[in-house]
Amino acid sequence: MNNDTGTTQSNATEELTDNGVSARRKALSAILLLVLLLLILLLFAAAVERTDIINFTSARLAPLT
What we know:
By secondary structure, the protein is mainly alpha-helical. Helix content is 89%, strand content 0%.
C-alpha cells in the first residue's frame, strides 16, 4: 500500500484551494480599490461643479462697475 499519494493529493488540493482564495481576495481588493477611486473622482467632480455654480452665481450678482 502506498499512503504517500493520498497525502500528496491532499496537499495539492489544499494548495489549489489556497491559491483560489488568494486570487479571489486579490480580485476583490482590486474591485474595491476601483470603486474607491471612482467615488473619489465623483466627489471631486461634484466639488468642481459646485464651485463653478458658486463662482457663476457670485459673478452674476456682483454689481457692474
